[in-house]
Amino acid sequence: MDNLKLTVQRQGRLNEKSLKLIEDCGIILTQEGKRKLVSVSRNFPLELLYVRDDDIPQYVFDGVADIGIVGENVVLEKGKDVKIIERLGFAKCRLSLAIPQTEKYTGKDYFQGKRIATAYPRILQKYLMENKIDAEIHEISGSVEIAPGIGLSDSIFDIVSSGSTLVGNRLKEVEVICHSEAVIIVTPHLLKEKKSILDDLLFRIQSVQRSKNNKYILLNAPNDKLDKIVKLLPGMKSPTIIPLYEKGWSSLHSVINENEFWEVINKLKEYGAQGILVTSIEKMII
Ligand code: ATP
Ligand code: ZN
């Protein structure tokens, strides 16, 4: 049977996390394989193709690769007919308009007649049209943030995450146009035979993703507070409760979403829970 072909960024911000995700799914990639342009896993019908991130939507659209891991910003910019089938939660950033710190920002109309430098002309064009802003787009492929400083443009439209690059170039973010994270895209031409490999891969990815968002929690609690604690920690189906040797006490095991953890922990202490242990989960299958 044919392998499923996955294209990932060869070098850069997405590379390491894309490969880590595949490895977390129990798919073995050989060390030497990672240095080549193509590598094949020896325990899963998956073939990896390493390319520049900008080329990923095209490769997937053409069917040279079946799926790809790429920033949503690149998917939007390229405008190819590929489908996003999973959001991966890493490489989170936003695309924003920024202007020199010394300028007074008066709202979106500030950009009327301005020159905007960007590596994302398509996304910017769409935004300008939707907002009826008549501005001049200067497409450049890199170091966009220096454009205003060297007189190439009045403002920029670029990727922002912490904002420190903007500050370093005496710019300020004035409009957030969209958010982005790494996503999996799939070709419109996926062969039927490969669909089941893709489903298997997605199943693994989803259990890895879910495990990252959840923690396993164990604690000791007085029996008369168990009902209250169970309501706080409903777990996957329901928590496990095991009696302790000491009378009137039980050990409770459950699963908790990481985002809710700190909120819940104070209540647990209030209900007399003791010896609370929280550990990470490697895989989570529901
Ligand atoms: P390539 O050489 O493959 O073309 P690149 O230089 O275009 O790489 P990277 O800088 O490696 O791209 O960024 C890849 C993706 O990571 C971007 O398209 C974006 O989705 C995301 N990204 C970029 N900058 C940041 C950031 N500061 N924080 C978080 N994510 C980011
Ligand atoms: Zn790129």
In short:
The chain is α/β, with parallel strands linked by helices and 286 residues long. Helix content is 27%, strand content 32%.
Helix percent band: 25-40%
Q: What's the level 1 CATH class of the largest domain?
A: Alpha Beta
Q: How many domains make up the 3D coordinates?
A: 3
Oligomeric status: single chain
CATH architecture of the largest domain: 3-Layer(aba) Sandwich
| Rg calculated over all Cα atoms | 25 Å
User: What does the average pLDDT come to?
Assistant: 95
Tell me the name of the CATH homologous superfamily of the largest domain: Periplasmic binding protein-like II
Q: H/E element string?
A: EHEEHEHEEEHEEHEEHEHEEHE
Widest beta sheet: strand line-up? 2-3-1-4-11-5
Largest sheet: 6 strands, mixed
Instruction: Find the CATH topology of the largest domain.
Output: D-Maltodextrin-Binding Protein, domain 2
* Record field, number of beta strands: 15
Structural class: alpha/beta
- Name the poorly predicted regions: none
